[in-house]
Specification:
7 strands; transmembrane helix; 3-stranded antiparallel β-sheet; single chain; Peptide/nickel transport system permease protein; transport; OppC_N; transmembrane; 2 domains
Length: about 375
Amino acid sequence: MTTTPPAPVTEPNTLSAPAEAGNGTATLPQWRLMLRRFLKSRLAVASSVVLAVLYVCAILAPFLSPNPYDRQDADLKNAPPTAVIWSGGPAICSREQQLDTETFTYEYSSDCGKPVPLRFFGKGHEYKLFGLISTDRHLVTVDKPHTLLFWGADSAGRDVFARSMQGARVSLTIGLLGVAVGTFLGATIGTISGYFRGAVDTLLQRFIELLMSLPTLPLWLALAAILPQDMSVASRYFLITLILSLVGWASLARQIRGKVMSYAASDYVAAARIAGSSSARIVFRHLIPNASSHIVATAMLAVPATIIAETSLSFLGVGMLPPAVSWGVLLSDAQNVATVQQYPWLLIPAALVVLAVTCFQLIGDGLRDAVDPYG
């Protein structure tokens, strides 16, 4: 007499994909579990959208800006933002400049009785879209001799909005590039230190401790100050990026070292050794990929620190220098308290820095929670 064995009892698994006929239950890959958990964080998702908008604005900066970012106009020194009104359609008020003989400052009066209509996708100054396509179309323009200033003008009569969008290209990309260099160094050195141990680990850890004992900001200031003043914008950009990534990798290297030391005792690493895999293959094909989730989360949290560092160096006059444009360079015009009181729109780049840094931090928190989807 044969008896039919009882069907196995399976516990419900909310992290599994629907079962396919004849194949049992198929589990989701880890990256999909991480994505699912990340999407549950509304703040992280909203921050991703805001950050994506900032990067799109940086890419399309010439198209969005009605004026050249480097054009100076003596008739628009410290001009306030242009008032937008509705007069059968969006329009601006005409503006006149007058000199106050008592304070020797320029004052501006608006005449809304003669509105100037805004023209969408109109013609303006020529530029190269994406650095390749020559065009003169802009999102919003006005007829000459009028000037559209969304966020006012600085002391040289330059458009703050156009310069802020142009500065986003430097400030937002230098953070990503600096963190990318630091992450590569930290992940590689930390993995080598945790895998080989012994004299290699001791030597690397003593060097990391020495590097972490140095005060970060004075070190950045000293290295940035020795750069020649007559360097090209591109050369200074890459050198400032290397300076910012010089210290940031040390903390990540120590974290990765601890994880790799636990991974190195795993069965799959022992199996790889028995199979004849070289140390380089084990490090780059097994250890670093397993620590990739932690690396990504840590790198995302390091981006805002790099953005603030570049802004601080440029604000102090040793980072990016004119004619380069970054948010730190723009904020250097707002060092005087009296200037800020009279022309508060010069602080708008500071609001962009706060917005970008906050978004990166919220995304980093969401990634940090998502790297452990089984938690």
